[in-house]
């Protein structure tokens, strides 16, 4: 299913069979050249408009504004409220939430020309998408991302598959951290503090140190990797 406005394109993603039925995920295709002062962006509040204006590159401003409008659009459809009236706040660790009784949990990620939004009324969710260029020197980032068992699994892959294997692992870990609430800045749980590999089909094998969470890979456009995580 694809829902379109003049500014953004939202596509509901089919999820793996073992993902909880209460979770829904949408992929947003971003037009990074779109002006952000049109009617499609009317739901942005003054704070959000000021934040968009602080970006030095228009592409970054368009990415933020489009994802925020898409989030407001989806949350409005979920709650039956007007998109512009929704009050979005953030926890002490920066995790956004909808400030109203019985609000659904949600999570947002974007990279390059795509974004993801996950929503659930039953559990915490985390989602991550990363642009994964073949020229990326993944080994330089590996010490900050991989646990030892992750590293062994990736090194055992054919050379040509290791970069994509790294990005698959990285997005899964980021999704888990975001569902957990710590985020990349570090907290009780860190990227290297748990392992997600090996992967059985789309399902990641999280170690017990990750807590009561599960994660799966998501279908992503060519040149991207994506993952979804949730609290059990």
UniProtKB/TrEMBL annotation:
One of its GO terms (biological process) is lysine biosynthetic process via aminoadipic acid. It holds the Pfam family ACPS. GO terms for molecular function: holo-[acyl-carrier-protein] synthase activity; magnesium ion binding. Keywords: Transferase. InterPro entries: 4-PPantetheinyl_Trfase_dom, 4-PPantetheinyl_Trfase_dom_sf, AASDHPPT_N, P-Pant_transferase_sf. Coiled coil: none annotated. GO terms for cellular component: cytosol. It comes from the Bacteria. Residues 40-118 form the 4'-phosphopantetheinyl transferase N-terminal domain. Residues 124-215 form the 4'-phosphopantetheinyl transferase domain. The keyword Transferase applies. PANTHER family: L-AMINOADIPATE-SEMIALDEHYDE DEHYDROGENASE-PHOSPHOPANTETHEINYL TRANSFERASE (PTHR12215:SF10), PHOSPHOPANTETHEINE TRANSFERASE (PTHR12215). Belongs to the P-Pant transferase superfamily. Gsp/Sfp/HetI/AcpT family. This is 4'-phosphopantetheinyl transferase. It comes from Caballeronia cordobensis. The lineage of its organism: Bacteria, Pseudomonadati, Pseudomonadota, Betaproteobacteria, Burkholderiales.
């Amino acid at each position: 299913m694809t829902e379109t406005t003049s500014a953004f394109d939202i596509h509901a993603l089919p999820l793996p069979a073992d993902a909880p039925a209460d979770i829904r995920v949408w992929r947003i295709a971003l037009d990074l050249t779109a002006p952000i002062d049109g009617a499609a962006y009317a739901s942005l509040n003054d704070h959000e408009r000021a934040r968009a204006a602080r970006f030095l590159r228009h592409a970054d401003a368009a990415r933020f504004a489009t994802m925020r409008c898409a989030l407001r659009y989806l949350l409005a459809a979920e709650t039956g409220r007007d998109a512009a009236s929704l009050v979005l706040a953030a926890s002490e660790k920066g995790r956004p939430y909808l400030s109203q009784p019985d609000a659904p949990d949600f999570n947002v990620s974007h990279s390059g020309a795509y974004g993801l939004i996950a929503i659930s009324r039953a559990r915490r969710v985390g989602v991550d998408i990363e642009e994964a260029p073949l020229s990326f020197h993944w080994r330089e980032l590996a010490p900050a991302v991989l646990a030892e068992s992750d590293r062994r699994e990736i090194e055992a892959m054919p050379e040509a598959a290791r970069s994509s294997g790294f990005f698959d692992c990285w997005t899964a870990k980021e999704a888990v951290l975001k569902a957990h609430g710590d985020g990349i800045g570090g907290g009780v749980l860190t990227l290297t503090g748990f392992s997600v590999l090996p992967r059985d089909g789309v399902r990641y094998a999280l170690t017990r140190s990750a807590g009561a969470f599960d994660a799966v890979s998501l279908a992503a456009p060519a040149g991207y990797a994506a993952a979804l995580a949730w609290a059990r």
